[in-house]
Amino acid sequence: MQVAKETLFLLFSIPLYAILMGIEIILSNYQHKKYYSFRSTLENVVLTLLNACLDFVLRSLFYVGVLLWCFKHSFYQIHNPWIYWGSLFILEDLAFYLEHRVDHYCRVFWAVHVTHHSSEEFNLTTGFRSSVFQPVYRFIYFIPLTFVGFNPIDIIFMYAVTQTYGILVHTQYIKKMPTWFEAVFVSPSHHRVHHASNIIYLDKNMGMCLIIWDKIFGTFQEELDEEPVRYGLTKPIVFSNNPFRLIFHEWQAICKDLSKKTNVFTKLKYLFMPPGWSHDGSSQTANELRKNLYK
Fold first, then answer.
1. pTM above 0.70, yes or no
2. 187 close to 177: Cβ distance less than 8 angstroms
């Protein structure tokens, strides 16, 4: 029954994506907005296929089994279906926020996640520009949910639902949602900020569906009229048309930093401190860049 539910949702979401992306492509070309290029769109398709294949293999062979084992040892059960599904939505969105924040503040995980931010375009296909190796560790953030009584199949289903919403906010066609909506939910405006390379916007708005986590934990930034968004990374990828470079360029940069003549503690910092951290000031983190911007 649960598998059928997920399959039914996929059968609904795939045509929805296709229709909306088709409309956006036609409109952007008709209006000469140049939101899409063939190369970037192809990169997005290839990356999401690689992610999906790895996710399928790991889900089948490994992490569903881990989550099921944890679920069997849960210490709490929610019997009211309204409370069950409502709580699962809120807690899973919080789990995504925590994962996403770690992805941005710990360089090892940023090396995986950076691929999603590497495009200088922002359109619905950008939502499919997957962090290829994220399925290797994503399930860890779901483990606490199993211990409080959420079925792993329901967790995976809810992730598919919330991820669909997360893909649909990758658009430049919706400028602002109503004020009440933007106070609670992630909007396209919020997510444009998240994909920006402007210093003021770095590491902001990391929620999937709810923007309240960013407001609670201090990572919220409104899109400003006086600060138009520039998409992509602060340092463009050299040879970005090379798929290997696209996926592994940050790992190569980490290896270069680890080869520096420093002690073990400093080398560990190059792995686990935020992206941009350096022992000699040769590069800076997002927070350091912002401090210098406001001096």
1. yes
2. yes
